[in-house]
Amino acid sequence: MSNAKKMHKCLDCGQFVPLRREEIPFGLIGKWAATVEARVYDCACGRGVVYEAVGPMLQAIAAAGIKKPSRLAPEEIRFLREHLAMSAKEFGRLVGVTPSQVSRWENGAPMGTTADRLVRMIEVQHDSVEFDVQQLAEIGDTARAPMRLRAVRNKDGSWKAAA
Ligand SMILES: [Zn+2]
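That is the input. Now the predicted structure with zinc ion docked in place:
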């Protein structure tokens, strides 16, 4: 089969179906969403999605997310904490607050400017994000609505995300 590389075994019924590349909505947390590139197939039994390199994809999203000029939204704080694979206790210990304060932030209580910037720096270090600290000075104090991101794959297979 010459097209073997582009065929995929349906996860539900086992039929081999063609795969195509498509940008689809990817739910992160709550109101925060991203559009990501994935391989999609339409089978007689339904539609399937195959995500590739999900770890690097989430890493690209986290790295793009911390560059937003407005304050981190509650969903973004939770996403970043989970991306760092930390419990509220571990995360709170780094930021210098109690686990219940972490929970309040993730549920909508405003996070102070200093904590907001510290959380971004933790992610910068975690994923070795290219980040000019001068950008911190440009983070505003308003518009905590979560941003929409778009993640696409580069030719070499790595991910690129942008707001
Ligand atoms: Zn099927």
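DSSP finds five helices and seven strands in the chain.
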